[in-house]
């Protein structure tokens, strides 16, 4: 290609008997309610031809199925289609599937084990009559002169996701992995505009909560002799494809761990204080936690910071403590803003706790604890709340609270000894 936009309804060759048959959606400005799409997106579908037939990998959003079928028809007849591979069951990839199954009724469907139930939910009726095969890493189908293999990549970003691998030409049809919402009808990464921001933005909102699964997938993908990556959204990566694999690895490895062999547990204390009381409590929580060795502790006033850097810190922290006064029966808005931002990172198993001062009813602490549990934090230490200005005894209670949190974080808290006379 010479860099001119794709026009018409023809399939686009991306390699030896491999074609792009997708669709462009330049007017889309919001995807799945969580991503902004400044210049739209693409729905990438691929056709793989072998000596013994044709394999379709993913389809497009239903609203764009007409152009999808025209591109498909430009390169093959429906009775040539032997296999339909579904890397991901989300509607932007499977919207044209019901109609495709009508037009190619003899095609066999291949998907991950986790996707089987989703297929039934998608089709509602008729799924029981389909020829469906569930596959995992190492499984393959034979197109005669080429093998189509599968790599199980769960939670990237749904439980059902997988990649399709064409070893003979070094092509990875990667589903949402290595994709981005970036619509440019020049299609290939060496021809389109600058999509670096879209690539990293997509990773941050789609893949970031599943970094552990990204690294597991990269363990399978990095050894492959990749010559081209064809994702389900955004540019096809034919120029330096391994750079994008390396970039994914870089974004998935904890930055703090890269700085050296960090063996300490990290504890972050965030607080807001209307009249200074919750702030005073925060300082005492810090002092108490400092009494425990093996913990690196940081204290942040939410009034003086912005959410994105705090989220970055939280992602790599082992424990989080939130302090908030109770105002109008609630925790303060910046605390909720930060907590609501944590859906973009993996929080399960982190330690959480809450404290705060109050004037009338003091609901904030319990409300924060409930939200932390909802985010799969462990909340082993009951929160501390103080009415108005803390006394010296109450500040000492805050120090004990901080110490107990740090002990739970390091596993050095002494086991509780039960006096059986207390049970009588």
Please explain how this structure is put together:
The chain is α/β, with parallel strands linked by helices. Helices cover 30% and strands 22% of the residues. The strands form 5 sheets. Strands 1-2-7-8-9-10-11 form a 7-stranded mixed β-sheet, with no helix packed on it. A 5-stranded mixed β-sheet has the order 12-13-14-15-16. It is elongated, with a radius of gyration of 26 Å. It folds into 2 domains: 242 residues, Ribonuclease Z/Hydroxyacylglutathione hydrolase-like (Metallo-beta-lactamase, Chain A); 152 residues, Flavodoxin domain (Rossmann fold). Strand 4 and strand 5 form a beta hairpin.
**Would you identify the CATH architecture of the largest domain?**
4-Layer Sandwich
Radius of gyration, in Å, reads: 26 Å
* Average pLDDT figure: 92
Compute the number of structural domains: 2
CATH topology of the largest domain: Metallo-beta-lactamase, Chain A
Q: Regarding CATH, which class of the largest domain?
A: Alpha Beta
Q: What is the strand and helix layout of this fold?
A:
Blueprint: E1 12-15, E2 18-20, E3 23-25, E4 30-31, E5 35-36, E6 41-43, E7 46-50, E8 53-57, H1 65-73, E9 81-85, H2 91-94, H3 97-103, E10 108-112, H4 116-123, E11 132-135, E12 140-142, E13 147-152, E14 162-166, E15 171-175, H5 196-207, H6 211-221, E16 228-231, H7 241-252, H8 255-258, E17 265-271, H9 277-289, E18 295-301, H10 307-316, E19 319-323, H11 333-340, E20 351-358, H12 364-374, E21 384-387, H13 392-410
Parallel strand pairs: 8-9, 9-10, 10-11, 15-16, 17-18, 17-19, 19-20, 20-21
Antiparallel strand pairs: 1-2, 2-7, 3-6, 4-5, 7-8, 12-13, 13-14, 14-15
Helix pairs in contact: 6-7, 9-13
């Amino acid at each position: 290609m010479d860099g001119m936009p794709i026009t018409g309804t023809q399939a686009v060759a991306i390699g030896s008997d491999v074609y792009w048959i997708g669709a462009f959606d330049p007017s889309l400005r919001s995807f799945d309610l969580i991503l902004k799409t400044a210049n739209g997106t693409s729905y990438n579908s691929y056709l793989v031809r072998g000596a013994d037939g044709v394999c379709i990998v993913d389809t497009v959003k239903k609203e764009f199925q007409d152009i999808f079928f025209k591109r498909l028809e430009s390169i093959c007849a429906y009775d040539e289609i032997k296999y339909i591979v579904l890397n991901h069951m989300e509607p932007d990839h499977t919207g044209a599937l019901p109609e495709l199954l009508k037009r190619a009724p003899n095609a066999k469907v291949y998907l991950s084990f986790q996707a089987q139930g989703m297929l039934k939910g998608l089709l509602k009726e008729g799924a029981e009559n389909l020829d469906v095969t569930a596959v995992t890493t190492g499984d393959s189908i034979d197109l005669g002169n080429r093998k189509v293999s599968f790599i199980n990549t769960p939670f990237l970003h749904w439980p059902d996701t997988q990649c399709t691998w064409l070893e003979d030409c070094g092509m990875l049809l990667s589903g949402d992995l290595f994709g981005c919402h970036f619509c440019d009808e020049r299609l290939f990464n060496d021809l389109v505009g600058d999509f670096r921001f879209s690539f990293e933005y997509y990773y941050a909102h789609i893949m970031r909560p599943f970094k552990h699964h990204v690294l597991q997938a990269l363990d399978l993908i990095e050894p492959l002799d990749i010559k081209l990556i064809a994702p389900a959204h955004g540019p096809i990566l034919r120029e330096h494809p391994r750079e994008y694999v390396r970039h994914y690895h870089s974004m998935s490895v904890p930055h703090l761990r890269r700085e050296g062999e960090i063996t300490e547990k990290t504890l972050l204390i965030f607080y807001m204080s209307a009249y200074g009381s919750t702030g005073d409590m925060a300082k005492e929580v810090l002092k108490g936690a400092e009494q425990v060795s093996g913990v690196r502790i940081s204290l942040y006033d939410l009034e003086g910071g912005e959410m994105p850097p705090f989220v970055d810190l939280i992602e790599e922290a082992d424990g989080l403590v939130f302090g908030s006064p109770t105002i109008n029966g609630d925790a303060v808005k910046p605390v909720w803003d930060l907590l609501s931002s944590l859906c973009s990172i993996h929080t399960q198993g982190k330690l959480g706790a809450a404290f705060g001062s109050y004037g009338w009813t003091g609901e904030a602490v319990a409300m924060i604890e409930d939200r932390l549990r909802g985010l799969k934090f462990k909340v082993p230490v009951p929160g501390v709340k103080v009415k108005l200005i803390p006394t010296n005894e109450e500040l000492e209670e805050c120090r004990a609270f901080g110490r107990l949190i740090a002990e739970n974080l390091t596993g050095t808290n002494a086991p509780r000894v039960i006096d059986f006379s207390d049970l009588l």
